[in-house]
Design brief:
single chain; 478 residues; alpha/beta; Rossmann fold; nine-stranded mixed β-sheet; 17 helices; 19 strands; 33% helix; 23% strand; elongated
Length: 478
């Protein structure tokens, strides 16, 4: 196996050692009454931070017997195994016994069936390796991990997902996993694991961290407590979560099978329910190819989305055809997909002339989803209705951000801002625009909507949309 150093080593192994505070503060209170009723196992033990501290809950004379009957640790790296062994010895465990119950083994490929020899059930507490298959494919040094994703594991997206499925296949009754929050909130990278795994397990509770815990990665993690169901079932899952960022708050989660058990789906449910019968058509990006194929005598002042220096985008003048000139001028909105780092620069729809003193935003190289992106609508809207759409979009976006603590958006992990920066997906933005009932309301109704938006009456807007959807009469006092 290739040798790695420092952060490259952590990335290659998917290895991020667990802070002992996670065990002390969030896991021990849940498991302390159960210590003698289970076999305590960590198949990715590292230095033993999640299991060995259990010994400290027993007087020194009792530790040997508890360790021998209740603790089994494994890790793929010999140096980590040796650290765990030496740590156990310092806690009063004879060396021969420590080496018997702490072993070097690749448990992803070779599951240790000896943990089932006891009459006691297994409780697996672990911080498994995280390594996304997209990274593995792109880096030659990690290609050997591709073997894990073959056969029954084809279609899974991360090493931690392989670990979960290994436990499922071996009927482990209870687990505590410290895993990336994309298990709860991810889309395509997590749909399959949730669909497969949560048919057999319930999430009893979760502690969700929106701050960095590990030295070599900005990945946000959750501590998930899993209980195996008596019988497999496709059913709604409900549980309480503790969410920790710059504040600590309790959250209630309801996971729906039809939405692949993804947490924070209120936004998605809204956009599906209230999609207009005949919505506006939405397209993104003005590209250089279009400029070059529509040259003419009309001047456009354009922002180069691919040229950013000294905290500003480069601007230039392009001579274009009348057709393109009118199209760009008729579509002055751009989408900011990424929070800038302060509350005045949140993701949302904004006006290009106001933000950039320009007419449009052009992509001169590859399009990036985090750049400002010009939005093209069909049909084109009068300017007053462009402003209405902008305010409608931003008002509802902020409503759902507050309602869900922005959980329907993707966390931007490289942030040091006072709040957690989020990314709004292009598909999500399009779905919200498609709830704007522009083609489906009368002029009188449009004025009603305009007044609701102007007064920032979000509940009134929701009632308005429900009335349009059902063909009923408006009743703002309901």
């Amino acid at each position: 196996m290739t040798q790695f150093i420092g952060s490259k080593r952590q990335r290659a192994f998917g290895e991020y050692l667990t802070p002992t505070t996670l065990l002390q503060e969030y896991i021990l209170p849940e498991i302390t009454p159960l210590l003698t009723k289970y076999i305590w196992v960590d198949l990715f033990a590292g230095e033993g931070n999640l299991i060995l501290p259990l010994l400290e809950l027993f007087p020194l004379p009792e530790r040997k017997d508890f360790f021998e009957k209740h603790i089994f640790l494994y890790d793929i790296q010999p140096e980590m195994v040796e650290k765990s062994i030496q740590r156990a010895i310092k806690m009063g465990i004879p060396e021969a016994l420590a080496r018997q119950n702490i072993k070097c083994q690749d448990t992803l490929a070779n599951y240790p069936i000896e943990i089932f020899k006891s009459h006691l059930p297994v409780f697996h507490i672990t911080n498994p390796p995280y390594l996304y298959i997209g990274y593995i494919v792109k880096h030659l040094d990690t290609h050997y991990y591709l073997e894990y994703f073959k056969g029954d594991n084809e279609g899974y997206q991360d090493l931690y997902q392989i670990a979960l499925m290994n436990d499922l296949r071996h009927n482990i009754p209870r687990m505590v996993y410290i895993i990336p929050t994309n298990f709860l909130f991810g889309f395509s990278n997590s749909n399959k694991i949730r669909d497969d795994f949560l048919k057999f397990y319930r999430i009893e509770k979760a502690v969700i961290f929106e701050k960095e815990l590990f030295k070599h990665t900005g990945v946000h993690v959750a501590i998930c407590f899993f209980n195996r169901k008596e019988f497999p079932a496709i059913e709604v899952q409900e549980f309480e979560g503790l969410k920790i960022n710059y504040t600590v708050q309790k959250r209630f989660y309801r996971l729906l099978p039809k939405l692949h058990y993804r947490a924070g789906t209120e936004f998605e449910e809204f956009t599906a329910r209230f999609r207009a019968p005949n919505p506006l058509k939405v397209k993104y990006y003005l590209n250089l190819f279009t400029l070059e194929n529509h040259k003419g005598s009309y001047s456009l002042r354009l922002v180069n989305a691919n040229k950013y220096a000294s905290n500003k985008y480069h601007k230039f003048i392009a001579q274009v055809s009348e057709e393109l000139y009118r199209l760009v001028k008729a579509n002055p909105l751009f989408l900011r997909t990424l929070d800038t780092g302060n509350h005045s620069g949140r993701a949302g729809l904004y006006l290009i002339p106001e933000e950039f003193n320009a007419d449009g935003i052009v992509v001169t190289k590859s399009p990036y989803r985090t750049h400002p992106i010009q939005v093209f609508l069909e049909p084109s809207l009068p300017h007053e209705d462009i402003l209405l759409l902008k305010d409608y979009f931003n008002l509802l976006l902020e409503h759902f951000r507050k309602l869900t603590d922005s959980e329907f958006m993707t966390t931007y992990k490289y942030s040091n801002s006072k709040y957690t920066r989020k990314y709004l997906g292009l598909t999500q933005a399009k779905a919200l625009i498609e709830t704007f009932p522009y083609k489906n309301i009368s002029e009188a109704q449009r004025e009603e909507l305009r007044e609701l938006v102007r007064s920032k009456d979000t509940n009134g807007i929701l009632r308005f949309l429900e009335s349009i959807r059902t063909g009923g009469r408006l009743n703002y006092g309901a």
